[in-house]
Design a protein that fits this description.
Elements (H helix, E strand, L loop, with lengths): L38 H10 L11 H10 L4 H9 L18 H12 L5 H6 L2 H10 L2 H12 L4 E4 L15 E2 L4 E10 L6 E7 L8 E6 L1 H4 L4 E3 L13 E10 L12 H37 L1 E2 L2 E2 L4 H30 L5 H25 L10 H17 L4 H11 L4 H4 L10 H13 L25 H19 L3 H26 L10 H24 L18 H12 L8 H4 L1 H11 L29
Parallel strand pairs: 1-4
Antiparallel strand pairs: 2-3, 3-7, 4-5, 6-7, 8-9
Helix pairs in contact: 1-4, 4-9, 6-7, 6-9, 9-10, 9-11, 9-12, 10-11, 10-15, 10-18, 10-19, 10-21, 11-12, 11-13, 11-18, 13-18, 15-16, 16-17, 16-18, 17-18, 17-19, 18-19
Length: 633
């Protein structure tokens, strides 16, 4: 693949040496209409108009007003369905528009940044669809895809209130006479969905005791189906989260998804996709919170100085940016990894969910605090920030539990200890190393969908063997990354990478020790869950280091003006390692400060807060930023 020649006066990029990982990255866009890596997202954002305009039905003010009234986003749903957003996760072979989940992530984020309620309004069928694609027959694939293309919503009913995160304790069952009886809890679009995938008990014990059932409009119209009123929620107000009660509802044999007993395995595979895609919601809310806080802090003065230019304000904005950038990069890379190596995605799916929800929650809360007393007002920036924080909190629990997710991550840790055990990288040049290098080349080629195979939900694996390319790849390349950073004069980032490898070795080694000690099991102590949380943060840092390594001779990420620039890298590494070590990241403020300049530039250029350029149609912050019900002083 060829790249564009350097512009006049521009120094050519240094040629990678023969031992460096190969690159298949296309030259990143340098400007011009439609030249960005995510053109569908840019077109959708332009079609939805400037979100700062108070009279824009797809803007921030409209979202705040709906939230206050607890109203469903019916107009926004209709507009986005017309634009085909609900088909963004459906494979093209089934009539969808899926290019890659990376592309869909960005597409959803430009819509959800205006009001995250548009995600459940248009995309709640993803759990049901992925369960059927992971475990169902080709005929069932076509059936559920047809419903989605027709604009119907297919609910996913797994959880039960009394069981909580322990799905093995679920009691809703399909009897021997094929009658479905039981109650499903907090079903997305439960009171309005035209169809549903219900995971019901068909045996007495074990993971194989559950079967997924594809219920169509006829089954849901049966008199034995009772839809309870939607539950009131703290975030995503006005959305339809309702319980479904089944009393002897007849289920035809053709409704069994795949085979009897495969329902839970299919649902767990599907949740790997869902956990990944749900992060678009928390990233969108954090983007809106940071953009709102940034514009407020640049226009509001304290002591005659813009808040953004005070030591406190500049530090907090930089920290909020570091939290968002770390989550963004982890999600983007994971959205590519699921295409390249679905059989190795089990760990990454849980890690990206935990990283994205934890870091964006911190970022959004930090941004709300920037507004001071105005944060408690329903109008102006306070309304936008308060909604962003509450909506963000819903994403954390909407498809998994925090405890259950950490337990799943903890199971993986001991198997990776060998890769980091003696502090030396694996032997280079072997077949396994060469194959991993090729996979990483595709996984880290952000913005390039041409090297990604189609999504295959059936290939997702539930095992805990050491197969994750990010963890294994960082173990192999950490020394080279640190050396290259040192050669380029970024000694701080080089030291961070070296320290990060040691951090991972210590964490994984401790996980092995904890596995052997019954007193430290999850039932006896929180130790292994704490290790899982620590691993997630270090995983995000390793993702950042590898991404820089594979882009080191390309245009800078996050608007960094330098080719292969590192202005974003060490702040992200420092933040993640500080949190993993239990240190307050505010103490590392000077190391994170460069992100304040980058994020300000991204907003000035009206770009999404993500690694590659995504142009937005927002009004310029350099003029009069149009906050809803603006009350600037």
């Amino acid at each position: 693949m060829t790249t564009s020649p350097p512009a006049a006066g521009e120094k050519p990029a240094p040629s990678p040496d023969a031992t460096a990982p190969t690159h298949r990255l296309r030259a990143l866009p340098g400007g011009g209409e439609g030249a960005g890596p995510y053109p569908r997202a840019e077109r959708l954002d332009a079609a939805l108009g400037d979100p700062w305009q108070a009279d824009n039905p797809y803007g921030f003010a409209a979202g705040v007003a709906r939230d206050a009234a607890g109203a469903y986003p019916a107009d926004a749903e209709a507009r986005l369905r017309t634009a085909g957003l609900h088909l963004g996760y459906l494979p093209k072979a089934l009539g969808g528009t899926l290019h890659s989940l990376e592309d869909t992530q960005i597409l959803v984020r430009v819509a959800a940044r205006r009001d995250v309620n548009v995600m459940p309004a248009t995309m709640f069928s993803i759990s049901a669809v992925m369960t059927v694609l992971a475990a169902g027959t080709p005929e069932q694939h076509r059936t559920i895809a047809g419903w989605v293309r027709d604009g119907r919503t297919v609910a996913f009913a797994l959880s039960e209130e009394q069981a909580g995160s322990d799905v093995l304790a679920n009691t809703c069952r399909l009897d021997d006479d094929r009658g479905l009886t039981g109650t499903k809890w907090l079903v997305g679009r439960g009171s309005t969905a035209e169809a549903a995938v219900v995971v019901a008990r068909t045996a007495e014990r074990g993971p194989a005791a559950f079967t997924a059932l594809l219920l169509g409009p006829e089954e849901l119209a049966h008199s034995g189906v009772r839809r309870l009123p939607p539950r009131r929620t703290t975030g995503m107000r006005g959305m339809d989260f309702a319980d479904l009660e089944f009393t002897g509802v007849p289920v035809p044999p053709s409704a069994v998804v795949g085979t009897v007993g495969s329902g839970l395995a299919g649902a767990m595979r599907a949740q790997q996709v869902v956990r990944l895609m749900s992060t678009a919601g928390c990233l969108a809310t954090a983007d809106t919170a940071l953009r709102t806080a940034l514009r407020f802090a640049r226009t509001h003065r304290t002591g005659g100085v813009p808040v953004a230019e005070t030591p406190y304000g500049s530090r907090e904005l930089a920290l909020a940016a570091a939290e968002l950038f770390a989550a963004d990069l982890t999600a983007l890379v994971a959205a590519r990894a699921i295409h390249v190596a679905p059989g190795a995605f089990a760990l990454a799916s849980s890690v990206v969910k935990h990283v994205a929800t934890r870091l964006t929650a911190a970022s959004a809360a930090r941004c709300r605090a920037m507004a001071g007393a105005r944060a408690v007002l329903r109008e102006g920036p306070g309304g936008v920030l308060d909604k962003a924080v509450r909506d963000n909190g819903m994403v954390e629990v909407i498809d998994t539990s925090l405890l259950g997710n950490l337990r799943a991550i903890a199971m993986h840790l001991p198997s990776y200890a060998a890769a980091y055990g003696d502090g030396t990288p694996p032997e280079p040049g072997g077949r396994e190393s060469a194959e991993r290098r090729l996979r990483l080349d595709a996984v880290l080629a952000l913005g390039d969908g041409s090297c990604l195979p189609p999504l295959d939900p059936a290939a997702l694996d539930l095992g805990v063997r050491a197969k994750d390319d990010i963890l294994l790849g960082f173990a192999e390349y950490a020394g080279e990354i640190a050396a290259e950073l040192g050669r380029r004069g970024d000694t701080a980032a080089a030291a961070s990478v070296t320290g990060l490898r040691a951090d991972l070795a210590a964490t994984l080694g401790t996980a092995v020790e904890a596995q052997r000690d019954r007193a430290r099991s999850p039932k006896a102590a929180p130790d292994t869950l704490d290790l899982a949380d620590r691993l997630c943060l270090l995983y995000a840092a390793g993702t950042a280091a590898l991404t820089w390594w594979f882009h080191r001779d390309r245009p800078g990420l996050y608007g960094d003006p330098d080719r292969g620039g590192t202005a974003w890298l060490n702040p992200v590494l420092t933040l993640a390692r500080s949190l993993a070590e239990g240190r307050d990241p505010r103490r590392a403020g000077p190391d994170i400060a460069p992100l304040g300049r980058l994020v300000t530039a991204l907003d000035t250029e009206r770009r999404l807060f993500t690694a590659l350029p995504v142009r937005l149609c927002d009004s310029s912050p350099n003029g009069e930023p149009r906050l809803p019900e603006d009350d600037r002083t």
